[in-house]
Write a structure and sequence with these properties.
- The complex is a heterodimer.
- By secondary structure, chain A is mostly beta strands.
- In chain A, 0% of the residues lie in helices and 51% in strands.
- In chain A, strands 2, 4, 5, 6, 9, 10 and 11 form a seven-stranded mixed β-sheet that branches. A four-stranded antiparallel β-sheet of chain A has the order 1-3-8-7, with no helix packed on it.
- The radius of gyration of chain A is 13 Å and the shape is globular.
- Chain B is mainly beta.
- In chain B, 0% of the residues lie in helices and 54% in strands.
- Chain B is built from no helices and twelve strands.
- Chain B has strands at 3-5, 10-14, 19-21, 24-26, 32-39, 46-52, 60-61, 64-69, 74-79, 88-96, 102-104, 108-113.
- In chain B, strands 2, 5, 6, 10, 11 and 12 form a six-stranded mixed β-sheet that branches. Chain B has a four-stranded antiparallel β-sheet with strand order 3-9-8-7, with no helix packed on it. A two-stranded antiparallel sheet of chain B has the order 1-4.
- The relative contact order of chain B is 0.34.
- Classes of the chains: A mainly beta, B mainly beta.
- The A-B interface holds A 31, 33, 35, 40-45, 48, 50, 56, 58-59, 88, 90, 92, 94, 99-104, 106-107, 109 and B 1, 4, 6, 9, 33, 35, 37, 42-45, 47, 50, 52, 91, 93, 95, 100-102, 104-107.
Chain lengths: 113, 114
C-alpha cells in the first residue's frame, strides 16, 4: 500500500502564480485533510473533507481552495500565491470509524518568492 | 477551539537513557483522543502512540509510554532506552470524539546524544 501520496514534493512559485497540490490515498479512508507546517507553529488545519462531496474550513483557510474529486483524491489550490504561503504542506486521511489517528503524506515544501 | 501546548521546544537525551516530553491541552469535552507523532528529518509524520481519554490505563508501545492525567489535562510521552533513531521532532495532538479536526502542539525537537 502506498498510503497517502502527495505531489509535488518541492515547488517554487512566483508571487501571484497559481498551483494545485495533489493528494491521493489508497486506504479507502473517508476523511481527508490539508495542513500547513510553519516553524514554531506546529501543524495548522487549512481545510478538511469529512466525506466525499463535503469540504469544510479549518483554522487557516484564507488564500486556499480545495476539491474532493472523489473518495481517493483531495486537492489544494492556491489561486494567487503569496510569500506568506511559503510552508510545508501535508495531506492526511482517516477512516471515519477508526479510533482516531490519521495517516500523513510526506509533505510538499512550497516556496513563494 | 481546543489548544495543545508543548512547553519544551528542544530536549536532549543520552543514548540508552530515558526522556519525558511534556504536553498539556485544554478542552471542555469529556471524551477525546490524544496522540504523539514523530517527524524525523524525512518529514514523514509517524504515529507513535495513541490514548483514548475514556481509558484509564496508560498506553504503551514498546519503548514508548504515556502518562495520561485526565484531570490535569496532561499527556506526557516517555521514551525508554533512547536510540539514535529516536531523534526527531515530536508533536502532541488532540482530536475530539465526534469532530474531524486534529489540534497539534508546536513540537519538541529531540536530540539523542551518542
Amino acid at each position: 500500500n502506498a498510503g497517502v501520496t502527495q505531489t509535488p514534493k518541492f515547488q517554487v512559485l512566483k508571487t501571484g502564480q497559481s498551483m494545485t497540490l495533489q493528494c491521493a490515498q489508497d486506504m479507502n479512508h473517508n476523511s481527508m485533510y490539508w495542513y500547513r507546517q510553519d516553524p514554531g507553529m506546529g501543524l495548522r488545519l487549512i481545510y478538511y473533507s469529512a466525506s466525499e462531496g463535503t469540504t469544510d474550513k479549518g483554522e487557516v483557510p484564507n488564500g486556499y481552495n480545495v476539491s474532493r474529486l472523489n473518495k481517493r483524491e483531495f486537492s489544494l489550490r492556491l489561486e494567487s500565491a503569496a510569500p506568506s504561503q511559503t510552508s510545508v504542506y501535508f495531506c492526511a486521511s482517516r477512516r471515519q470509524l477508526e479510533t482516531g489517528s490519521s495517516t500523513f503524506g510526506s509533505g510538499t515544501r512550497l516556496t513563494v518568492v | 477551539a481546543q489548544t495543545v501546548t508543548q512547553s519544551q521546544p528542544e530536549m536532549s537525551v543520552q543514548e540508552a537513557e530515558t526522556v519525558t516530553l511534556s504536553c498539556t491541552y485544554d478542552t471542555s469535552e469529556s471524551d477525546y483522543y490524544l496522540f504523539w507523532y514523530k517527524q524525523p528529518p524525512s518529514r514523514q509524520m509517524i504515529l507513535v502512540i495513541r490514548q483514548e481519554a475514556y481509558k484509564q490505563q496508560n498506553a504503551t508501545e514498546n519503548r514508548f509510554s504515556v502518562n495520561f492525567q485526565k484531570a490535569a489535562k496532561s499527556f506526557s510521552l516517555k521514551i525508554s532506552d533512547s536510540q539514535l533513531g529516536d531523534a526527531a521532532m515530536y508533536f502532541c495532538a488532540y482530536r475530539g470524539l465526534v469532530g474531524n479536526q486534529f489540534y497539534f502542539g508546536t513540537g519538541t525537537s529531540l536530540t539523542v546524544i551518542p
